[in-house]
Specification:
Blueprint lengths: L2 E8 L4 H10 L3 E7 L5 E8 L4
Antiparallel strand pairs: 1-3, 2-3
Length: 51
């Protein structure tokens, strides 16, 4: 299986809604880490569609 990946900043007061929206589009949360400027960054993946 091939994967595509996405990184996105997370807004603290709206984290659940942001992650639910990505989940509805087929993205799976892999990890959340602190970004270089102090905010949170989410790493997501989903199966890559065959071209």
């Amino acid at each position: 299986m091939r994967w595509e990946y996405l990184t996105t900043p997370l807004i603290i007061h709206n984290t659940t809604a942001i992650l639910n929206n990505f989940g509805a589009d087929g993205w799976e949360l892999v990890q959340v880490v602190q970004g270089p400027e102090g905010g949170l960054v989410a790493y997501l993946k989903r199966p890559k569609a065959d071209a």
